[in-house]
Design brief:
The chain contains two helices and five strands. It is α+β, with helices and mostly antiparallel strands. The strands form two sheets. A three-stranded antiparallel β-sheet has the order 2-1-3, with no helix packed on it. The longest helix has 15 residues.
């Protein structure tokens, strides 16, 4: 039975087999996650309780006088937005803890 299967597979290969069309190239291992992230302006909001949210700047639109605004970040009743800034996805941001430790992260993370 194994010889029959082998003969049939060889026949299928001979009839439908084509040489490889793609090339395998060296050097693909040096790519990082950051290389795959698109550069885009983001609005980063920080709440009083320490929550952070990023939203693409393209979702915001200009308003005229008397505009009611648009909720960029929904918060709890006792929480409110304390900081709001625009940064690129590849811009590093520094975070300072209450213990004096500094953390550095890119906006896309």
């Amino acid at each position: 039975i194994q010889q029959i299967v082998k003969d049939e597979l060889i026949a299928v290969h001979d009839e439908f087999g084509t040489p490889r069309r793609t090339e395998l190239a060296e050097g693909g291992a040096d790519m990082e996650d950051e290389d795959l992230i698109q550069r885009e302006d983001m609005v980063v909001t920080v709440s009083h309780s320490g929550y952070i949210k990023r939203v693409p700047l393209s979702l915001y639109r200009a308003q005229r006088r008397g505009g009611k605004g648009r909720s960029g970040m929904s918060t709890k009743e006792e929480d409110f937005v304390t900081r709001l800034f625009v940064a690129n996805t590849h811009t590093p941001v520094l975070f300072f803890s209450s213990r004096g430790i500094v953390y550095k992260e890119k906006v896309w993370r």
